[in-house]
Input
Amino acid sequence: MTKPFRIGLLGASRIARSAVIAPARETADFVVTAVAARDPARARAYADEHRIAAVAEDYGALIARDDVDVVYNALPPAGHALWTIAALEAGKALLCEKPFACDAAEARAMTETAARCGLPLLEAFHYRFHVVVRRAETVVRAGRLGALQTAAAEFHVPIPKAPGELRWLADQGGGAMMDLGCYPLHALRILTGAEPAIASAAGVFEDGVDTVMRAELVFPIGVSAAIACSMTAEAPSAWLRLQGERGQLEIVNFVAPQRGCRFTVTVDGETAAEPTEGPTTYAAQLRHLRDVLTGEAPPLTGGSDAVANMTAIDAIYAATRPRDA
Output
């Protein structure tokens, strides 16, 4: 691979603007070289708007380009496995949007292909790379809270039901749990350092898509936890809380700390505010991708982590079905 690393965009997506295009312009490590969309005219308009040099005829042409080192797969989840595997087999490294796949079976196929091809495949859980979550990991691992006892996390974003809104389309991998709930689930897995069993789950469904999901989790380290998400909430909200024998950790807006964040740790009755400053989650994500591509760091997402998150999501959906279904 050459440096700067050349990124090709699968999908003329809204998320690519903040996740890749903007932070890539702030560093000499990356340049966005090409984009492809289902509609070539849309891809051309997108390229013109964002000053991207090349428009690929279709997704296959994008992953075959010689001026693309890394593919950013921002397609709906229904297109993650197919085009991620194709891009890996074309010799490209991958940054794949969350949720990683439609289910754990697809996730395993993707990670197995990455391993066989010897190429990086990261899941774009951008919050994971920010100093806030990295600091929270340090607090927990250092034992400042004592043995963990309970945990909770929620992520709610109002997503209007509109024609073509992919998160409202079941066949495209939509749903609150897939788009939003994957974050609190992932965060509690990361911070506890364990994999949960699903004690119970309940959702509100409309046209085959879950608009609200709640789940009770049990971690083998003796931690009971709860997660919740909603696409029909009145206002955005994202928070997590860990309770231990000695104290509590709480983060308000753990998903995008750059938009305002409160991070406190209470130990033995004394509460202190933790620092929240740092680059945006998306800039931190690209920095980590650079370090993985150059061999300076192992990937924090993807691989067994991505498979485990999808396995838990599968189990949550399974728990919402009647036992005799």
The chain has two domains: 5-124, 131-278. The longest strand covers residues 209-219.
